[in-house]
Amino acid sequence: METLEETELCFPQLLNTSCTRSKVPQFETLFTYIVLSSVSLLTVSLNLLVVISISHFKKLHTPTNLLLLSLAVSDFFVGLLMLFQIIFIDGCWFLGDLMCILYQYLLYIITSASVGTMVLISVDRYVAICDPLHYSTKITQKTVKIWVCLCWIYSVIYPGLNLKDNLKQPGRYNSCFGECVVLLNYVMGIVDLIFSFIVPIILIVLLYMRVFVVAVSQARVMRSHIAAVRLQGSMKVTAKKSELKAARTLGVVVVVFIMCLCPYYCVSLTGLASKDTMFNASSAVFVLCLFYLNSCINPMIYAFFYPWFRKSVKFIVTLKILTSNSHEANIL
């Protein structure tokens, strides 16, 4: 009986004041460890490649790539913070109340910055396709740097306001030792849902719908022009490919974003789970995995689609990046 009690308590020496471990089958726990560890490693690796590529090569210092750099930085830290959730997988938090609230606060900051940067990327693409003649004057490196700074400042201040009670007294909502609970009141929870998910998803969908319509329209105009000059034979296929590529790329961006974030926020809205207790149920683990998976997929859909990324990865893997003047290499 004593052995059973020790295996079920987070802190056996504290007896009645200790939290109990979640009773999860060993296979399920091992599987979850492997999946989350793999996603964490992949997220960190992919985003680190993007950060090194854009930071190192001078040719990649463009407004759009600065936004990709901001996104990669935030997603890189999301991958690192996943390690804390892996530690918390059995329902026991061993790092103390202060680390609990700091972890939650950092996660809020980084996730908010990631979502905000995705909105900025959609604005950048909207101007580039819908108003290409004025793009170079409206979207400059200085403008983008200001956007990114404001995005990160907002991402630091907003979560601080949401978590101010928790920051003042870490662990105030814990009912036992080994628990990591962060609570928002109902009003703040609704506000967080609106500004962290509903508003960004509406902006991204609306902007990308407009971009898609303009891109398809331009492709059709090009196809008509090609037909007029009697080059339909070889160029018509190119026009069709352009339409399909625009539809596929923009569709992936919107659908993946919705698929990864919508389930998590739907669960949060109904109050069936929260960020601190998400790992206590197998169904909730799946929801949170999707939430984190977005940070892993971002470098794939924003960077892997660019040829320069594949070239820069070759430079990094073959260590050519260590040679003198490698930052001047033309990898475009």
Helix and strand topology:
Layout: H1 2-8, H2 26-56, H3 63-87, H4 96-130, H5 135-138, H6 141-162, H7 164-168, H8 186-228, H9 232-270, H10 282-302, H11 307-317
Helix pairs in contact: 2-3, 2-10, 2-11, 3-4, 3-6, 3-10, 4-6, 4-8, 8-9, 9-10
Number of domain modules: 1
What structural category do the secondary elements indicate? mainly alpha
Label the CATH architecture: Up-down Bundle
**How far do the termini sit from each other?**
67 Å
Roughly how much helix do the residues carry, as a percent range?
over 70%
From the 3D structure, determine the CATH topology: Rhopdopsin 7-helix transmembrane proteins
Using the coordinates above, name the CATH class: Mainly Alpha
3D shape:
globular
Contiguous low-pLDDT stretches (5 residues minimum) are 1-6, 230-240, 272-282
Total beta strand runs: 0
Topology as H/E string? HHHHHHHHHHH
Quote the average pLDDT.
76
- In CATH terms, the superfamily is Rhodopsin 7-helix transmembrane proteins
How many helices? The count is 11
The biggest sheet amounts to: none
Radius of gyration: 23 Å
The fraction of residues in strands falls at under 5%
Describe the protein's architecture and organization:
Helix content is 73%, strand content 0%. The protein has helices spanning 2-8, 26-56, 63-87, 96-130, 135-138, 141-162, 164-168, 186-228, 232-270, 282-302, 307-317. With 332 residues, it is mainly α. Helix 9 (232-270) runs antiparallel to helix 10.
